[in-house]
Write a structure and sequence with these properties.
The chain is α/β, with parallel strands linked by helices. Helices cover about 35% and strands about 25% of the residues. The termini are far apart.
Length: about 425
């Protein structure tokens, strides 16, 4: 099954799906009820603009409507509002959906809502608001299967919430919950910015590592880098916190004798000896560490296990790129409040899930450490916030040219705040 934006769907099949819905059923309003096909195509173009926050009627917010497809069959629609105004907050909430009558009772609503919640997480929507008519217990069960609880009610409706993080949870629980629900495997392959991140990062790894290197990756995810480096002949140790990711990593690395996968936390590399690795990669933990003590522990542990003269690559995220990528959809104020104080200092707290840094702020974390700075570089440029455009496109030939061009400019200081992912590269003092 997959969710397809209506503007990217087969318009004829989407039209037929919408025409199978009543005008109003259990609180779901079919806004194209009775449209002829030409008028429906005009609505599709309107939805394309709305998904980018363009030409919104007064009182409306940016939203994206998805068709749920099971093979060749279009079975339902799910609408995701990117943010809430006062009316939506007290009423319909973030998500509305409808399944065609002939496909009901087959689990499509539950799966479609699960997939829509993943889209919401990618938009940094940490708490989802929804509503359901009291005379529609099946829809309430769908929401509850996806973690919803009844927040309050009136005479006719329940108003539900789905906590995408978990209030009061530890940092480890929050990160594990996110990656258990998020499809991390393939992240670096399914988008242009992901492909550029991988290509650029591998280029920098190869500047300091060869087939004889002993490599440690901390926060290895599903093993995209670790497995590739092991296949090149390097002796690789991969450490991962999240059980789901570790399971995939171990499955993908079966039969490769020179890689071992361990469960572990970046702040406590128990069992790894001092001065062991030629190259240490810290690709992820610092996205999810918020307390200064834990940030310092992760940095110190990576330094500890690296050989004197060895190289360490620390990945981090630009707070400005977080804003550019996620908060131009009618939700700028909430993004600014989440990432900055009133006097514009940068905030770090675990409920952010992903925390971002000013480049100079991140570099200052290494002052007084027993390392020497080599460089700070971006790895994926400004692509993520513009890749959502309907007219965005890259051929394989263009991507090769982009990759070569970007490597030439990736360390330019004036560009670093715009790139989403960055590397701080240093050498352990002898």
């Amino acid at each position: 099954m997959e969710l397809i934006r209506v503007q990217d769907s087969d318009y004829k099949k989407t039209y037929e799906l919408y025409m199978s819905f009543p005008e109003n059923e259990n609180g779901y309003m079919n806004n194209v009820y009775g449209f002829d096909y030409e008028r429906f195509l005009t609505w599709i173009e309107m939805k394309r603009n709305w998904s980018m926050g363009k030409e919104l009627p007064e009182g409306f917010v940016p939203d994206t409507t998805y068709v749920l497809a099971d093979g060749d069959n279009y079975v339902g629609v799910f609408n995701l509002r990117h943010c809430l105004n006062d009316f939506l907050r007290e009423g319909p909430g973030h998500i509305g959906y409808c399944i065609s009558k002939k496909y009901r009772g087959k689990g499509y609503a539950t799966k479609g809502l699960e997939m829509t919640l993943e889209k919401a997480r990618q938009m940094c929507i940490h708490e989802v608001y929804m509503s359901v008519n009291k005379d529609n217990p099946a829809s309430l069960r769908v929401q509850q299967k996806n973690g919803a609880y009844i927040h309050h009610e009136n005479d006719t409706e329940y108003f539900t919430r789905i906590d995408q993080i978990t209030d009061g949870a530890s940092r480890e629980e929050i990160v594990s919950k996110f990656y258990t629900q998020y499809e991390e495997d393939g992240r670096l392959e399914r988008s242009v910015h992901g492909r550029l991140e991988y290509a650029t990062t591998m280029n920098y790894i190869h500047r300091y590592a060869d087939k004889n290197s002993k490599v440690l990756e901390i926060g290895a995810g599903t093993g995209r880098y670790s497995i590739a480096l092991a296949k090149e002949g390097m002796d690789v140790t991969a450490v991962e916190l999240v059980d789901k990711n570790l399971e995939v990593l171990r499955e993908h690395s079966k039969g490769i004798s020179n890689i071992r996968a361990l469960k572990g936390d970046a702040t406590r590399l128990d069992g790894l000896s001092d001065d062991t690795y030629d190259v240490t990669l810290v690709f992820g933990p610092l996205y999810h560490l918020y307390e200064p003590d834990e940030v310092n522990l992760a940095i110190d542990e990576a330094i500890r296990v690296t050989k004197p003269g060895g190289v360490i690559l620390f990945a981090f995220i630009s707070v400005y790129a977080i804003m550019y990528s996620n908060y131009f959809y009618g939700n700028w104020a909430s993004g600014q409040e989440e990432n900055f104080t009133e006097d514009y200092n940068i905030r770090h707290f675990k409920e952010q899930l992903f925390t971002g840094y000013d480049i100079a702020e991140f570099e200052q974390l290494f002052e007084g450490k027993k390392v020497s700075w080599i460089t700070t570089t971006g790895v994926d440029g400004l692509i993520e916030p513009i890749e959502h455009r309907a007219d965005f496109g890259f051929t394989d030939e263009d991507f090769k040219k982009l990759s070569d061009w970007y490597l030439h400019f990736s360390e330019k200081r004036e560009l670093l705040g715009n790139t989403n992912h960055l590397l701080y590269i240093c050498r352990k003092d002898v």
